[in-house]
Amino acid sequence: MSQQSHRLLMVSNRLPVVVSCVEGRWDISAGSGGLVTALSPVMKQNDGLWIGWPGCGEEAPLNELLSRFRAEEGYRLHPVPLTEEEVERYYWGFSNETLWPLFHDLLGNCNFSLENWQTYRQVNERFARTIAEVCKAGDLLWVHDYQLTLVGAYLRKHGVRQALGYFHHIPFPSLDLFRRLPWNLELIRGLMEYDLLGFQTLRDRRNFIRCAHSLLPDTEVIRRHRHHTTLRHGQRKVRVGHFPISIDFDEFNDAAASKEVDEAAWFLHENIEGRQLLLGVDRLDYTKGIPERLLAFERALAKYPDLMRKISLVQVVVPSRTMVPDYRDLKGQIDQLVGRINAQYSEHGWIPVHYVYRSLDRVQLLAHYRAAEIALVTPLCDGMNLVAKEYCASSVHNNGVLILSEFAGAADTMGENALLVNPYDIEGTADAIRQAFTMPQHERKRRMSVLRADIRRNDVHRWVRRFIETLQRSR
Fold first, then answer.
1. b vs e for 58-70, b when ≥16 Cβ sit within 10 Å of the residue's Cβ?
2. Are 72 and 192 in a shared domain?
3. Which of 48, 176, 311, 386 could form a disulfide with 75 if both were Cys (CB 3.0 to 4.6 A apart)?
4. What is the pLDDT of residue 27?
């Protein structure tokens, strides 16, 4: 990205760092996510400042650690301190027990707590107050995700008139679903205080516009473009666009082609010789559709006996929120399904499901992507799902098949060359597994080469440029 004349202020729930203490020695390191990787050069070029919760308590020597980070990474971090109770109510409570399930169309998992909502408002106001203290005229402010929907409204109350952008990384619900939120009016009004609202898909953009138009009588559409719609809200104009997030294609492609990953991928397949590997990689979460995926694999084995001994599912589940009852129950359900399938179908020398309950290091993750002939990316609902793109970028020989949920945001751009499934349709997903297994090599290569070319062209760096350029034009 070229040098810009504006300073960029990035705001997210967490700072892009890991603060740790080993044997009494404190350390700080940059986060490893694709968003951090893509934004770091932009932050350096624009004298950037990243604002967020540091993820640690008062015992950490934070000023010293943040000074070290600036010297090493070339941009500054500004912390927003939170108490344990605030983290519990604002983050684990309202953000992840109310907004997360509601926005993923899982109303039955919602907890509508007034106390959590009040803490969410208080924390959003503290973020805004912190931003107002450090921002300058001409700054561009980019706020990220559902934990901070109200920051824009509080910034306006603090007199901030700089360009405000907001990107929503998860799905945005339909009007009927959004109205279930007892505080829907305050939340939608808060979002309308931004100058630019970014969503993952056209569907999310349309859902938001319908909610705003229906719930706020003084809101009307005044202009439509391919990638954004301009709304008038009172005396203000708000751009609402869709900006599908992506990954750093070159980083995944180059690392997957390395000798270290190649050897690790060979070792994985050598241990399961003569079979095609199906791969699922998911955080433990009820939105990811892991039980439905296991049921579909079980059905495929029952319906298509020719798959026996010729296919194995490697399901990686990264532990998450293991003390929360819903997540413990989900873990138990997955354990039970894996045990049942392996008990019923295992034969000497063949286990149908290889279940890995832990996170994988970078080399092992890429090796699993390289080794798998088929990826099962079948969430019940997802804003985008970058695993689908990571798998394709790592398929350096163009020999993989992507089975993708139609309810993942990635389906909008990848659906034509993936095998789209409804994850609730166990029979249909089982048929897709058989179709992928029997797909001719020339068709695999054709589909995967198109998928990889599109990810290479529309990578995360282009996503960052598009959003910032649109934000600059919005004011």
1. eebebeebbeebe
2. yes
3. 48
4. 87
> Quick check: is 388 in a domain?
yes
Taking every pair of Cα atoms in the chain, the longest distance, rounded to a whole number of angstroms, is: 72
Q: What share of the chain is helix, strand, coil (3-state, %, to 5)?
A: 50, 20, 30
Q: Round to whole Å and give the CA distance between 470 and 451.
A: 26
How many domains does the structure of the chain reveal?
A: 2
Residue 2 lies in a domain: no
Query: At 475, which amino acid appears?
Result: R
CATH number of the domain where residue 320 is located: 3.40.50.2000
* pTM assigned to the model: 0.94
Same domain, 129 and 214: yes
Q: Which two structure tokens, joined as six digits, stand for 53?
A: 């919760």
pLDDT score recorded for residue 34: 63
Let me know how long the chain is.
Answer: 475
Q: Take residue 65 and report the two structure tokens written for it.
A: 């650690």
Q: What are phi and psi of 252, to 5 degrees?
A: -70, -45
> In this structure, are 446 and 388 located in the same domain?
yes
In a domain, 149, yes or no: yes
Q: Which residues of the chain have pLDDT under 50?
A: 1-4
Cross-strand pairs, 402: 375
- pLDDT on residue 263: 95
Q: Are 106 and 287 in contact (CB under 8 A)?
A: yes
- For residue range 150-201, what is the model confidence (pLDDT) as tens digits? 999 999 999 999 999 999 999 999 999 999 999 999 999 999 999 999 999 9
Strands (E), 74-204: 76-79, 140-144, 163-167, 196-199
Structure-token match 């109200």, residue found:
150
Which amino acid is residue 111, in one-letter code?
Answer: N
Domain-located, residue 3: no
Q: Are residues 350 and 294 in the same domain?
A: yes
Domain housing 25: 8-245+460-474
182 and 39 in a common domain? yes
pLDDT of the residue at 61: 87
Active site residues: 169, 382
pLDDT recorded at residue 3: 42
DSSP 276-290: EEEEEEEES-TTS-H
Number of neighbouring beta carbons within 10 Å of residue 271: 10
442 and 299 in a common domain: yes
Residues 6+ apart with CB under 8 A from 307: 300, 301, 433, 434, 437
Same structural domain, 255 and 164: no
**What pLDDT, on the 0 to 100 scale, is given for residue 2?**
41
User: How many angstroms separate the Cα of 268 from the Cα of each of 271, 292, 312?
Assistant: 6, 25, 12
Residue 341 identity: I
Residue with tokens 């939170």: 82
